Amino acid sequence: xxxxxxxxxxxxxxxxxxxxxxxxxxxxxxxxxxxxxxxxxxxxxxxxxxxxxxxxxxxxxxxxxxxxxxxxxxxxxxxxxxxxxxxxxxxxxxxxxxxxxxxxxxxxxxxxxxxxxxxxxxxxxxxxxxxxxxxxxxxxxxxxxxxxxxxxxxxxxxxxxxxxxxxxxxxxxxxxxxxxxxxxxxxxxxxxxxxxxxxxxxxxxxxxxxxxxxxxxxxxxxxxxxxxxxxxxxxxxxxxxxxxxxxxxxxxxxxxxxxxxxxxxxxxxxxxxxxxxxxxxxxxxxxxxxxxxxx
Length: 295
Hints:
By secondary structure, the protein is mainly alpha-helical. Helix content is 60%, strand content 1%. The chain has helices spanning 8-22, 50-71, 80-101, 126-139, 150-156, 160-175, 178-187, 194-207, 217-234, 240-261, 267-284, and strands at residues 107-108, 122-123. It is flat.
C-alpha cells in the first residue's frame, strides 16, 4: 500500500525496488513456474531441501502401505476404496521420483536483473547430484517390495505392467539427461558427466543385479528398458558424442548377458538374458531398424 501512488512510472520503479529488496530473503524468493530446468520450481516444494523432504515422504508412504488395508473401511466389497487409495499412494510415489529426477542435470536460474548479484545459470552442485542419484538408485533402480504387495495388487487389479511403464518412463527421463549434463559441463567441471551417468546406470541395473542367478520381473523390465533406450538414442544422428559412449555401454550389456546366461539356473532369467543378447546382435548387424520394442 502506497498512499502517494499516482504516477505510473514512479510507482512502477518503487514496486520494482521493493520486490528486488525482498528477493534477497530466501524465504520470500520467487521463480516463475516456466523455469523448468530449475529443480526448485515444482509442486510440493515448501522447504529448502526437496530430496530430504521426499525421503521423509517415502517413509510416510511405507507406513501407509503397512496399514493400508487395516485403515480401509471394511464395507468395501469390491475393493473400490482400497483401489483408489492404493492408486493415490502409487501416484505420490511417482511424484517423489519426479521431484528428485530434476536435480540430475538441473540448473538454477534466479532470473536476476542487471543490478542484482544473483545466479543466471548455475548447475546443480555435484553434492546435490550425488544425493539425487543415491535417492534414485534406492527408490527407482531397485524393486520396492513394500509398495508392490501381491495381495493388495490382486485385490485392486493393479498389475505389474501398470507400474512397469511408469518406472521405464522415469528411467527414460534419467537417460535423456545426457544433453543437460553436457550443457552443464560447459559451465562447471565438477558436475556429473553423461559418460558417468550412463556407466552408473549400467552398473546399477546390470552388474548389481541377478547375483543369486534370478531376476525379478521388475529388474528384467529395467534392463530391457535401459537397453531399448540406449539403442534408440545411439541411433540418433545428432547424438554423435554421447552415441559412442552408448554403444560402449551396449557392448558391456551384451558381454554381461552372455556371461549371465551360462550356468543360470532360472529358466525365465536365462531366457531374458538370451533375448537381450540376440537383440544386440541383431542391432549390430543393422537388423533392428524397424524394432521398437524388445520382445
